[in-house]
Amino acid sequence: MNFRKSTYDDVDKILEIIEKAKAEFKKSGLDQWQNGYPNRQVIENDVKLGISYVLENVEKNSVESKSKIIGTIVLSLEKEMSYSKIEGKWITDDDYMVIHRLAVDTDVKNKGIATKILEFSEKVCLEKKILSLKTDTHEDNEPMKKLLEKNGFCYCGVIYLDKEPDVGEKRIAYEKIIKIPHKLL
């Protein structure tokens, strides 16, 4: 597998993965991502800012190698204003990286791909000398809450979004402190 920054050539595939996730949310009665967000403009801006990443499955044979994007995530160092007002408490007040728009192609769901993306995200944090990952999710997004908790994220409280189109929407906040591998000490 290959984890890399997204390019403009990846936008259509990222949107396809996100649209599949939107359909899954709708089917399960979850109203997350049901209001036109995220859309092409958002994804293209993520790529432009250099904060969009993809996970590719690389298949190699004796003649060639072929890759297919199977997941996507946004990792941003930009401070979230909505995170400054939490009903609860963050683990740290240190610098942090924020996870947004994590999605896995439904064709490869339940195969540990989201966990792999989170593991790669931790490596990006270490490269940038950031030891805290923060994120939020819809209060009814049980699969995401379970994924985060399974991967060492701690529930920190509740925040309310401050950006369109979801101003005032309640979200469940999580944080994970990245452990520095011994070889880096």
Automatic annotation (TrEMBL):
It is an enzyme of class 2 (transferase). The keyword GTP-binding does not apply. Keywords: Acyltransferase, Transferase. InterPro entries: Acyl_CoA_acyltransferase, GNAT_dom. It holds the Pfam family Acetyltransf_1. The keyword 4Fe-4S does not apply. One of its GO terms (molecular function) is acyltransferase activity, transferring groups other than amino-acyl groups. Residues 1-181 form the N-acetyltransferase domain. Its EC number is 2.3.1.-. This is GNAT family N-acetyltransferase. The lineage of its organism: Bacteria, Fusobacteriati, Fusobacteriota, Fusobacteriia, Fusobacteriales.
